[in-house]
Amino acid sequence: MSQVTIYTTxxxxxxxxxxxxxxxxxxxxxxxDVAASPQRLAEMLHKSKRRSVPQIFxxxxxxxxxxxxxxxDRKGELDALLQA
Length: 84
Description:
Elements: E1 4-8, H1 13-24, E2 29-33, H2 38-48, E3 55-58, E4 61-64, H3 66-74, H4 78-83
């Protein structure tokens, strides 16, 4: 199963939803709280070119935020990405 990295903050409802969806899929995730580390926030901005959280990466692929993740799931494409 692919490694999933999710950049989050503690009080983000979309982060909670993304983590819940990934947990239902059985994905192993590495969570990075960008509010706790300015360096990690800069890393997220550099990698994703976005300021909002969550920012989700499956392997090296930038999936986007929760809406993007949910869209992949609705289209039936998320499982294949997680299994790659």
